[in-house]
């Protein structure tokens, strides 16, 4: 983390909006808030990087931004398992 201490609530709120951020669905002010948080919070930046990698992989492998439902379910299950093991 940076010089300022970030709250779990702030991290939770940031990570809840990661997909909107990745899909450029946020207004400039909200995007700036997320960029600022990610720059100051290494754990959130690492989670963001994972989400970006998954989105990039799905886009490359599936020819678009939307994964087939079965693939999305499988990936989400693996992410859930990994989070449980790490958390």
Automatic annotation (TrEMBL):
NCBIfam families: antisig_RsrA. This is Anti-sigma factor. Residues 14-44 form the Putative zinc-finger domain. InterPro entries: Anit_sigma_mycothiol_RsrA, Znf_put. The gene is rsrA. It comes from the Bacteria.
